[in-house]
């Protein structure tokens, strides 16, 4: 099994993600520089958190045009599993692989803290080792994490069961996201983006290992091939 982790100028969680995938799960990885294109020979492509292009214009709006994104889009369209964490999620939305957009947090501040999440859909490649309504403790760290989608889009997300993770309640919602949405998938379920950082909660020494279950889900899906 081999994963690709894409690094953009300004990514800052790529090495944390590499550590979890390579050192904890012992899965081979390639670090893919954003100027490269890749062939469809990966089991999963991961887009890490960070401040690609300094978050100029809007988070992810410039990274979306990096050459590697042609390969990411092709990979996703061919059914490849793609995980976007925080800035990675922002880039996936800008690239049109996930619906919606991010606004600046409603308190206009960068927020960095542990939050409680609730699993809304456990039938995805990224959550199959979790249970519906399970509560997770995973940190967030962002300034543009206020997920927005119009009424029609929200209805569609709900109708297709694309809301995968929610902040547990309004008091756990760190940014003002509509409907407390913390993570969504595409209709086909092979692309998943979330604002919390599972790679920062993959060992007990970090205060929580709940994030590890996201990677365990993905790896088990790739081995077993069913949701
Ligand atoms: N850790 C991250 O990926 C968050 C950074 C992100 N660009 C922001 O909204 O602030």
TrEMBL record:
GO terms for biological process: 'de novo' IMP biosynthetic process. Its EC number is 6.3.5.3, 3.5.1.2. One of its GO terms (cellular component) is cytoplasm. Its main location: cytoplasm. It comes from the Bacteria. It catalyses: N(2)-formyl-N(1)-(5-phospho-beta-D-ribosyl)glycinamide + L-glutamine + ATP + H2O = 2-formamido-N(1)-(5-O-phospho-beta-D-ribosyl)acetamidine + L-glutamate + ADP + phosphate + H(+); L-glutamine + H2O = L-glutamate + NH4(+). The keyword Kinase does not apply. GO terms for molecular function: ATP binding; glutaminase activity; phosphoribosylformylglycinamidine synthase activity. It is found in: Cytoplasm. The active site is at 86 (nucleophile), 197, 199. Pathway: Purine metabolism; IMP biosynthesis via de novo pathway; 5-amino-1-(5-phospho-D-ribosyl)imidazole from N(2)-formyl-N(1)-(5-phospho-D-ribosyl)glycinamide: step 1/2. Part of the FGAM synthase complex composed of 1 PurL, 1 PurQ and 2 PurS subunits. Part of the phosphoribosylformylglycinamidine synthase complex involved in the purines biosynthetic pathway. Catalyzes the ATP-dependent conversion of formylglycinamide ribonucleotide (FGAR) and glutamine to yield formylglycinamidine ribonucleotide (FGAM) and glutamate. The FGAM synthase complex is composed of three subunits. PurQ produces an ammonia molecule by converting glutamine to glutamate. PurL transfers the ammonia molecule to FGAR to form FGAM in an ATP-dependent manner. This is Phosphoribosylformylglycinamidine synthase subunit PurQ. It comes from Halonatronomonas betaini. The lineage of its organism: Bacteria, Bacillati, Bacillota, Clostridia, Halanaerobiales. The gene is purQ.
